[in-house]
Write a structure and sequence with these properties.
By secondary structure, the chain is mainly β. The protein contains no helices and 3 strands. The chain binds zinc ion.
Length: about 40
């Protein structure tokens, strides 16, 4: 699964697909892919 982070408020969501709308700040199309830091 990919992690997505809102560029406006920093809210992180786990989803296979890019979220269209941020549930936290209601920004549209503000998501960018977050780097997966699980690999050590
Ligand atoms: Zn947001």
């Amino acid at each position: 699964m990919a992690a997505w982070v809102c560029s406006k408020c920093g809210y992180v969501r786990d989803s296979r697909c890019k979220p269209k709308k941020c549930p936290n700040c209601n920004a549209q199309d503000s998501y960018g892919k977050a780097e997966d830091s699980k690999k050590a």
